[in-house]
Structure formats: structure tokens, C-alpha cells
Amino acid sequence: MLNTIINFGTKDWSLVLAALIIILCLLEIERLRALFEIELKKRLVPQLGMELITDSKVGDNGFFLKNESFLIARNIRFDPVFWEMSDLGFPVKLILKFAGIDFIRSNEKVKIDFEILDEDKKPRPEITDKVLPHLIRPSFKVRVHYSNIEDIAFNAVFDKKRNKFLLEKIETLAQEPH
Can you tell me the distance from the alpha carbon of 115 to that of 122, in angstroms, rounded to the nearest whole number? Predict the structure, then answer.
């Protein structure tokens, strides 16, 4: 075997080199094809952003959802957020429940209606009206379920740190049945 390799001529080494180059090119083509598919899927995903505005100088206070892409996001639903606040030194467990949104057009910003429920899932309107300043500091996650106009479903998780929501991840789900 070693003797055969030593006796390789220029043509033989050229063939080996050409074969290695072809293999490397095929691997690069496969890598680029995978990146192309990822980019193509990204273009089908409506990119949502979430924010909490508590400064009355800006105008309307509350939670807002913005569609930061060129695609329509529809059937937007939120998982309830379980949260604990202190009331006169006693911990109170509450549920932050967001209302669903039918659709958001490209670059549209929509205020999200919400209500506060107690741990028995009873509405607490007296807390709902005054809770925004208490939601600035705590960290929590909001899971959003939505789809695009082709009925491809997505889950987005927003992680709230201080007064900013950061998009933690977006998952593509199976196509919704018609």
C-alpha cells in the first residue's frame, strides 16, 4: 500500500487532489443549501416584539405587541403568566392573563388588553388598573402562540428583564389543519 502511494505520478496526485476538491465543494454546497433553507423559513416567520410602557408622558400605558416583519401575524394567543407580588409584606400569587389578538399587519403596533386574576382565577379589576408600575421590576416570561397567513404556527418566548422584553426563542410548529 505504502509502495503504491510512493509510486504515484503527477497524474495520480492530480486525480487525488481533484477528488478532494470535489468532496470539499460538495460539503460546502450542502452547508450553503442548509443556510438557504433557514433563511427562506425566516422570511415566512412574522417577527414580533413586545414592550411594556409605563411612562405617562409617552401616552398610552400598557403592554404592546409589534409586528416587526413584512408578514401578517394572526391568531395570536398568550399563555397566562403566573406572578407573585407583595401586598403589605405578604406574598400574593397572581395571574397575568392577556387577551388574544386576531391579527397584526406589517409594522403595526397593538396594545394588548390584559387582566389580573387571583390564584383562584377570579378577576381582580381593582388590581388590574393599578398593576403596571409593579410589573416593571420583576422578571417573567411570556409565551406567545401565533401563525402566519399560510397557517404555519409558531411559538415565541419573550423574557422580560427589568423594563425590556427580549425574544428568547421562536419555534416553528406543524402546519395547522384547515
Answer: 10
